[in-house]
Amino acid sequence: MQIKVCMPDFQKNKTEVKNENRKRHVGFKPAFDCGTHRNGLCSDGQCRRKNTNISSITEKLTIIKIGDGISEAMPETTEKSSLDIPDSIEKYDLFTLDIQKMRDLLISDKKIPVTIDGVSYSMNLSEMEVNAPDVKSQTYSYVGNLEDTKDSEVVLTISERVLIARINVNGIDYVIESTPDKSKSGRIIHYSHRSTDVKDDGSSLNTEEDYLAHKYYSDEELKQRDDEAKIEEERINSKSSTKSLTPVRIRVFTDNQWISDEPDWLAKAQDIIAELNNQFQRSDIFIRFYAHYDTSKASALSSDSQHITSPCDSIIRQVPIEYLNSNHEDIALYLGGYDSSYIGIAATYGYDCPNPLQRRYAWVQMKDDPSSYDGVHEDRAKATIHEIGHIFDADHQQGEQSSGQGESYNRAYQWTENLIFTKQTVMWTPILKSNTFEVSSNDYHGDYYCNNALRIYETKNIVASYAN
Ligand SMILES: [Zn+2]
Questions:
Q1: 73 CA distance to ligand 1 centroid (A)?
Q2: How far is the CA of 385 from the centre of ligand 1 (A)?
Q3: Domain ranges of the chain
Q4: Helices (DSSP H) in 42-86: which residue ranges?
Q5: What pTM did the predictor assign?
Q6: For residue 248, is pLDDT > 90?
Q7: Would strands 246-254 and 331-336 be described as parallel, antiparallel, or unpaired?
């Protein structure tokens, strides 16, 4: 197998190479496309019409209502600007929550009734381990599904003040998020929205400047790569009896801006890690992240000279490798509170970086961006899973792979559901609204050519020993 290398520093001017080596991630494209046009680039309006049809059916329905009197609808009397809800979310519902009642139900292991677009369900949830054992927190994460509902999924985090949740059913993500505002009763105002109610309000940033090499393969080369992939998969499967959940320690940083923007930044950060664990704990990857949350660098990150222009460099500068090692942390994740002027909304130097001191850092923007990236929960979580994927050497789809990429199977995957929706796995670039949270795999959405999970499985022990 070819050894993967980044473009070495001596090939070009150092500053230029530094930027080229970094994985850039750009804005989102529409949630809907027609399935016949590539990458959601539909010019005939078909997609928009389909979107409108679905919206007209759900227009008058309450998006999410949590039963037992837990959620209480609010009239939309609050100014949208104080709620910090992106303009691209065309429809949303405001409500408050009896958080304590919800916590009591969760702790007592009771099923939670929920009505979604007028249909009643019951949430079947189990607590998910997200934080390092020494983290003392009253914030809990849960994962599960809707009872008796095929292909449903729930990821939820609850603190003493806020609830963050994503319920996927019928191919739509229904999301609950907190706002910075409070009702007259003093409860934090939450809002819910559907992934289908998000419009494309900004252009996707052009990927032409992406440093990644564009390579096309002959039929003979493709056959060779297919054969290699089968051999790799069989090799991994033959070792399946020795599979074990690999612990990876991740330290989550933020800056003063995100702390002040959020009613409870810790709950949102923990929910992002819960989404990360929900993907990486799958049996074909088998990684569990253990998180610490660190505010000790918040002021330093806010005053770093590159906190707007290149936040990935800010985290590398402000959190020296010795700091990570002394805290026994494998990875540093910076959830940045600023609308950066950087070309993308997330970045990492990744697994193949020639400088080992830079491989362990990732930055993801939490703020709404002028591009179609909205900085809402699902955007943030997908971008985070994508960047952490690069830290384990997962790569993009064919044609957008790193020039040094040597694994034939290490690619993102695209498919069409119900002859309508084109979807992509999480490593697809640019990160589209139609990207899912899912890592490509021969066991899920993917094939021998598109098996990012296999590559993550192969590199996990190396990443898990970074701090040792
Ligand atoms: Zn990428």
A1: 39
A2: 10
A3: 9-29+203-463, 61-197
A4: 46-58, 80-83
A5: 0.84
A6: yes
A7: parallel
